[in-house]
Design goal:
globular; about 210 residues; alpha/beta; 4-stranded parallel beta sheet; two-stranded antiparallel sheet
């Protein structure tokens, strides 16, 4: 249906089986959600994931997971991705509708504050530790493999809807996020960092060619 009006379809995948199924139905590209990404992330290292998918998929590959700077974008392309895909970094922009406390928590967090757990939705995903703890989801609970009944098991939550509103997702790329900028300013910064990173790689070529 998307192709009928000239649109393109890019599909999230975290493992080869998902990628093969998407390729079979003719997607235009794959978004490889590597370990450390926000939301429903995978568990594979980005280099391993890219190499695995490139064995059989020759269309557009986007890499997602822990990308917050222009240097990260350059690194993704150096690893073999055609494009880089950022999620968490754009939570912290002025135009975002994210709660200010959410943005503040991202700025104050490090990669070690990202918890990969199935306790919130029943499917493993990455969440900010302080937001889990604020809802009463302690380490013993986030280590569970089953979904928590937020209506009865947690005193801090009366309903799952409230839990989703106050338990916030983010990726390990929070380590590089230290401010909230307008989108235009962030894009200019990313471009500047990307160009600088490419120039540094050019210097390496001169050393090792």
């Amino acid at each position: 249906m998307v192709h009928s009006y000239g649109g393109l379809v890019y599909h999230d995948v975290i493992k080869r089986r998902h990628a093969e199924k998407a390729a079979e139905v003719g997607v235009d590209g794959l978004i490889l959600v590597a370990a450390g990404a926000g939301g429903h992330a995978g568990t594979l290292h980005p280099i391993a994931l890219i190499n695995e998918i490139k064995k059989f998929f020759n269309k557009t590959i986007l890499l997602s997971g822990c990308l917050s700077t222009g240097n990260d974008v350059a690194s993704a392309m150096q690893m073999g991705a055609d494009m880089a895909y950022m999620g968490t970094r754009f939570i912290n922009v002025k135009e975002s509708m994210a709660d200010e406390e959410y943005q503040k928590m991202i700025v104050e967090s490090s990669a070690e504050d990202i918890i990969y757990t199935a306790a919130v939705s029943g499917v493993h995903a990455s969440f900010l530790r302080p937001s889990l703890e604020a809802m009463g989801v302690t380490e013993d609970k986030w280590k569970q493999s089953k979904k928590i009944d937020f209506g009865s098991e947690l005193d801090a939550a009366k309903a799952e809807a409230k839990a989703w509103k106050t338990i916030w997702s983010a990726g390990q790329g929070v380590s590089a996020i230290k401010e909230t900028l307008p989108v235009a300013s962030l894009v200019r910064q990313l471009k500047k960092e990307f160009i600088a990173a490419i120039k540094e790689q050019q210097k390496l070529l001169e050393v090792y060619k």
